[in-house]
Design brief:
- By secondary structure, this protein is an alpha/beta fold.
- The protein has one domain: Aconitase, domain 4, CATH 3.20.19.10.
- The chain has eight helices and seven strands; from the N terminus they run βααβαβαβαβββααα.
- The chain has a seven-stranded mixed β-sheet with strand order 4-3-2-1-5-6-7.
- It is globular and about 70 Å long.
- The mean pLDDT is 93.
């Protein structure tokens, strides 16, 4: 992972509740274990017509939203089965942040492990953010604020998640960074056996 303190970019809104992982990345695209190349299949049942052409009315196919970095969604985003392919597809498309009024726990955990920032905001803030389609907004991880329409929206991150993003490390990187402390602890345990 890279150090990430702030993300600024175009926001795209998909105001649909209960978007599950099968809608994010349909099962027919799960035959690979490589993280790259999944972005073209992101929301494929919505992004493409039956003949494979782009659906002209889907938000990620329109103008500046093709390069969106921040996805704002309806309530209960990422519900359904656990599949790391869902955050992989979002990241491969270029999305770095998902914001909702609630995000399924298993999706949130998979996202954090893969460098996708999941943010939950209160209902009032969510209503404001749902009006930000195709607008540039900023997510300040260090100060835990979203800046949209010249307003600041506070959000909370778990301390460990925040630490990992600000220091450019995933869970494994963190464990490796603690190698000296782990070795010292293990050495101390041997003394008491």
């Amino acid at each position: 992972m890279q150090v990430v303190k702030q993300i600024t970019g175009i926001a795209s809104v998909i105001d649909i509740e209960n978007i599950d992982t099968d809608q994010i990345i349909p099962a027919e695209h799960l035959k690979i274990t490589n993280k790259t190349g999944l972005g073209k299949h992101l929301f494929s049942n919505w992004r493409y017509n039956s003949d494979g052409s782009e659906a002209s009315n889907f938000v990620l196919n329109i103008g500046s939203s093709r390069k969106t970095k921040i996805l704002i969604t309806g309530d209960n985003f990422g519900c359904g089965s656990s599949r790391e392919h869902a955050p992989w597809a979002l990241i491969d498309f270029g999305i770095q942040v998902v914001i909702s009024s609630s995000i399924a726990d298993i999706f949130r955990n998979n996202s954090v492990k893969n460098g996708l920032l999941p943010i939950v905001v209160n209902k009032e803030s969510h209503e404001l953010l749902l009006k930000q389609n195709a607008k540039e907004i900023s997510v300040d991880i260090e100060n835990q604020k979203i800046i949209a329409d010249e307003k600041e929206i506070n959000f909370e991150l778990e301390a460990f998640t925040r630490y990992c993003f600000l220091n450019g490390m995933d869970q494994l990187d963190f464990i490796i960074s603690q190698e000296a402390r782990i070795a010292a602890f293990e050495k101390e345990q041997v003394r008491y056996e």
